[in-house]
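Appendix B. One record, verbatim.
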Amino acid sequence: MPNGSPALLALFAVLGDLVRVRMLRLLEREELGVGEVAKCVQLPQATVSRHLKALHDAGFIRKRIEGPASRYRMQPDLLEPFARDAWALVRRALDGSASDADDQQRLVAVLRGRRTDARSFFGRVGGEWSSLRGELFGDRFTAEGLQAFLPSDWSIADLGCGTGELAAELAPLVKRVVAIDRESAMLEAARARLREFPNASVRHGDFVTGEGCGKAGAFDAATMSLVLHHLPDPAAALHSAARLLKKGGLLLVIDMVEHERAEYRTTMGHIHLGFSKKRMESLARSAKLTLRSYRPLRSGVAAKGPGLFTSCLS
């Protein structure tokens, strides 16, 4: 590419699209096919192919043909000096952003799937065993087996239970589950879901105010799954939830990691755009609790939302 202002402006025109910058960051870390890039950035393959062509034409990425497929890689050391400098500037702006973190988490899942596919292809017996195991035992026994670490004599409150999915997972494993929500439509669905579990009950209540939730110290543990980001005062909500716990009781929070999808405020009524570990530590202190753990959860390749975390407070 020739030197001069027009060429430099053309480079920055290519780098002026956030999707292309995200793709370059992925391809700097790993050589990927079109479908793999599409999974990481959660866009249709046709859109990704168009962006890859623009990046290739501008000299930012190299293409390698492997059988019927094309694979792409970005290698900064091979760029022209002014292109390398332009990329370094743009890259610094992206590093550490929530969108980059989401892309990198999905990249890990894509690479993990690639390794699994390779093992299945080259290890016929292993592939047959996985299929046979699924036919014999289904695909849920591993998760349920791990959940059996829960003490079987516990009473658990599922706060903001929604349609009762988490309560239904817990009911077979513990002594008692109480699903609590303030929305009547959610409770109706939860009652239908939990009807088969004699140790599960559904209660209309607001755990933020404590109304309808029961007496203090009634539960060994409580869960809040994808609830906290809807609440105006998360610290006050955590404090109210803790009131329901016995001494030494545990509060499990599952929610979104910090992200940049501001449109969720208007499209889905989210008040908070996720929570970082630092923010959860601060909320826990304000609620007179201790954050025992904060652990990002693995994202499914097909998942379209931000990453999730699980945390334990006491």
